[in-house]
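Something for you to look into today, if you have time. What I am after is a single protein written out in full by you. I want to see for myself how the chain folds. Could you add the entry underneath, on a fresh line?
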Amino acid sequence: MKIYVTDTGTGMDVNTKERIFEPFFTTKEMGRDAGLGLASAYGIIRGHGGMVNVYSEKRHGTTFNIYIPASKKEVIPEKLPVREIMNMGKTVLLVDDEKIITDVAGTMITRLGYQLLTA
């Protein structure tokens, strides 16, 4: 299977491109983002026997081509009764430092019937 992600951002020079999968490497100023996103994604892809090709040019954006081998395992559909998922009256504490995460996850949690507290 091939997945590709393309952006039209500023692109990367050769030196930056060589380091993008290193843990904690970032081109952002101190105090912003930990630099674990690409390293984590790369680890997951490699763990599944896949590979990543990166094409980037300064001022022309970046394209990540992700290749993951198809599984030969039979897909067994998960059967969960909806009534067991719905836990009316229970409370969930959702903690995150990004408002978009608490907004989106909070909406899903309340739709499942839980009371929600966010921090």
